[in-house]
Amino acid sequence: MDERLLPVLEAFDPDHILLFKASAQEHEAIRPGTLNIQGNDGKPLTGSAREKAIRDAPPQGLHDPAGGTAREFLVEWLTPFIRLADQGKKLQLHTSITSTGSSGLTVMPELTFTTPHVAVPRTWHGDVALQVGSIIGFRHDGAEGTPQKVADDALLRFGLQGELGDVPTADLWCGTPGEELRRRSQLLDAAVRGVRAGLSDDMGAIVIGDAAEDFSLAMAYRLLLGRGLWVSNQMLDSDSVRKTGVVPVARQWLEDAHEEVGRIPCVSVSMSYTDLEAVAQRIDGDVFRLVPASEDREHLAPGEWPDLRRGLVRKVISEGVGESRSVPVERHDDGTLTMLTPFTPPAPQQSRLNDRAYWYVDIQFHGSIMPTGRGLVDEALKTSKHVDMVRSGADGLSVVTASYGFVPAGAVESAKLSHPTLITLGVRSWVGAMAQQRGLGVRYSQAGRAVQLVARRLGSRRAVIDLIAGDFQRILLKYADDQTSNEERSRRVGAEPGETSGAVVLGLNPYLTFDAMINSTVGGQSSNAAEPLRENLDALQSVGLARMGLILGCDDCGRPSFYGIDDLGQRFRCPLCAADNNLSAARWKKPHAEPVWFYDLHTALRQIASQRGDLPIRAAARLSEPSPNAYGDCSEVEFIRDGSSIAEIDLVAHVGGKVAVVEAKAGATFGNGKARRRQVNKIATVARTVRAERVILATDQTEWPAADTEELERALDYTFKGVPSPVVELMVGL
Question: Are the beta carbons of 469 and 595 closer than 8 angstroms?
C-alpha cells in the first residue's frame, strides 16, 4: 500500500477494518493466473485441471497472510473499534468479511429495489463502466438479456455530472423509466444524508494513472470532498472519451473552482511529476474556453494533495444530526473533560435497520482540545473499563450504542443501550496515553514543573503564554541566574554602576527596580510600558509569583539581603546570620535618600528565565495565534522507560487538527557528531510516539544550521518508515 493513501484512510475514519477474503473463483476473476493451486504431487496445476479445481473450490474465503499483515498495520495506524485483552493485545470486534458472510456486523434487511432507478450492468467492461458503476451502483442483467453498452463518453458525463443527455436510458434503467431520475446508490442511502463539516479550499481532485491506488484515490476524493475523477491511460487513448467525456467534466469543475475560489488539483500515485504534468497539459489543451484563462486555478495542473482535515462530507443517519445534550463535566488543569453522569445515546425513531441492529453515535465535547484518532485505545476515553465500546474518531468520540454489559431478557430498548461515562483528554493526558501504548511513561521535567506551578497560580496555561509572549519576557530574562558582578549587571539593565535604581545581584539572583524593568522593555522610558507592567506586577504579586521589597544590609555580618514587604518591620532579622537589625537609613545603599523598592520573582519564574523556558512558551504563543480557543499543548515533558528518561521535548501542541512537537533552543544547534545524532533520535522518538505531523525547531536566532535539519529529516524518515513522516519546520526570531 502506498503511504500516500494513509491520510485518506485517516480522513475516512473507519469504524471497522475488515479483510476481504476472496474465494478461489473471486481471486481468479480479480487477478487471473496468480492463484497457486497444487495437485496431489505437489506440482502446480495448469490448463483444464486448474480451471476445474477453481470451479469446484468451496466458496469460503482463502487464507491471505499478506492481507492479514496489511490489515493489522492499518488497525495500529488508524483507530477502529477495538477491545483491550488482559495481555494488552488489541482485539478487533470484526476482522474479515467474504461475499457470502456477514463478519458479525449487522446485516441490512433484504433490498428488493422495486423503485425504478438507473445502474450499470455488471457485464459492461472497461474503465469508464468500472468508475461510473462504482458511483451510481451496479446491477445484474435482467431476464430481458444483456443491455446494449452505452458509449463511454456519454456514460462518463452522466456518472460525473448527473445528466442523462444522449445516454440510451432504457439500457441503464432498472424497471420502467420514470420522470424522477434515481441512482441505485441513492436507494442504498435512503436512510442517510451527507453532512459537510467546515469549509475547504479543496473541492476535489482529478487522479491520473492505471494503478489500483489511483482508482481508489479518485473514489475516496469523491466520497470525502464531493468530486473525484479517475482518468486511466485507456480513457486518455480514446479521443472520444478524452475530448467529450473527460474534458467537459474537467471544464465544469474548473469553472466551479474559479467561481467558489477553490481548487481542483491533478494528482497521481503511480506517475512521476513530469509525466503527470504532460497529461494534465494534454487534457487542459482540449478544454474549450470562450475567454482565455486568466488565473492558475482555471487551468488543470499538478498540485498539492487535497487537505482532508476539514470540509469533508460524512454520511450519517438523518435523525439527531447536530443535536445538543447537556451533561455535567469536570474540567482538569490540562483541559481533560470527564463526564460526571453517564451519557444516554439518542435513538433513531425511523431507520431501515432491523431490530438486531445498533447504531453508532459521534459525540463532540464543547471545548475539547484532544487530538483525534492516531490509534488511541478506548480505555483512556471512558471510566467504565470493560463495558462500553468507544473510539477516538475524526469527529469526536464514537460510541457503540449496544451495551456489552449484562442485559436481562425482555429488557426495554433503552436498557439494551450503552450508557458510557466519557472522557476527552487534555494534551498532557493524551500524550501520556499515547506513550503508555508504546510502553513508555511521561512526566514533567524540572522546567515543566516550574511552568505548571506558574500556570496553577495564574489560573491557566493561557495566562502563562499571554504573559511571556509580551514585553514581560524581556524583563523575565533579566532575572536569570548570572555569574557577573553587580556593576556589570547594572550596566546591562541601563543603570550606572553602584546605583540602586538599576539592579542588584545577590548571589546569583538579580533584583530589579521598576525603572530598570521599564528600561528592559522595547522603547524603554520613552514607551508606554509602565501601565501594562504595573498590571502584570500586581497580578503576579496577588498570586505570590512576585514580591516588592527592599535590599538592606545587615549591621552584624555586613551582607545585603532582599526583604519582602511582608517581612519588613521596625526590626528585621537577617536571613544569613539571624541577627536582628533596626530599620534605619544606615541599612540601605544611600543613607541620605529614601530606600528604593526592588522586585523579586518566584523561583519558578527565575528557573524559566535561567533555562530559557520562555522559548517554548513563545513558540506556543505563535502557534496558537490563529485560533487560541482551538489550541492545546503541554510543555517540558520527559518520556521514561523503567524509571529512566529516554527523551525530552520542549512542547507538544495540537493546532489546526495537527500534532506538532517543538524543540526550542537559544543557541540554535544540536552540536556535532554523536551529540547531534542523539538529539535528533530523541526528537524522532517523541514524534513517532505522539504521531506528529509537524516537527518544529524554534530559536531566538535568525536561522538554524542546515546540517541539523537534514540529520533530523533522516532520523524521522527512518523512524516513520512505511508511513508519512512529519514535516520539519523552522521558527526563528522568538
Answer: no
